[in-house]
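Deviations from the work plan: none for this task. Representative record:
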Amino acid sequence: MKLLKKIAWALLIVFVGMQFFRPETNTAEAGHLDAFLTETNPSQEVRLILKQACNDCHSNQTIYPWYSNIAPISYWMDEHIEHGKEELNFSEWATYKKKKKDHKLEELVEEVEEGKMPLNEYTWTHVDAKLTDGQIKALTDWAKRTRALYQIGERPQ
Ligand code: HEC
């Protein structure tokens, strides 16, 4: 019993100590998505889908829920955000070359059609991010149309 009590205290101290180490928050200036939105011209419906289901991990602006302040949840979320942005960051769209834009949109269609994005664990707490069949179609149709525009040179290179 004594040992268990010691372990419980040690865990509590570690947990409290963790709270002092916070990952940097992912917050951008207003207008960080302007270039992306102008170039890919999503409908209002698609904008809302991106906002509710993707931008937290694929843009420079995350909307943080209250529990994101609690370590180790904060570390776990930060890992997703950093990794997600590394693969695809709408806020940095203007820095991508045409070929990369086309490829990222191709990946987007694949990931969304296969139900891999948004990440499952994200939809546990973000109910709005669970995409309906109609939303999946709207999002992938937009991505396919935009790819076609890049391919025929109707968009910046
Ligand atoms: C909770 C964070 C999170 C959310 C929300 C999220 N993603 Fe991701 N996404 C990631 C992570 C992490 C990766 C990289 C690892 C992987 O592929 O599983 C990734 C990878 C991707 C890739 C692959 C890029 C490449 O070049 O291979 C695409 C495309 C993508 N996400 C699109 C989306 C779309 C579209 C949405 C919204 C419908 C979305 N993601 C929502 C975290 C997220």
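Helices lie at 2-18, 34-40, 44-53, 55-58, 73-87, 98-113, 120-125, 133-151.
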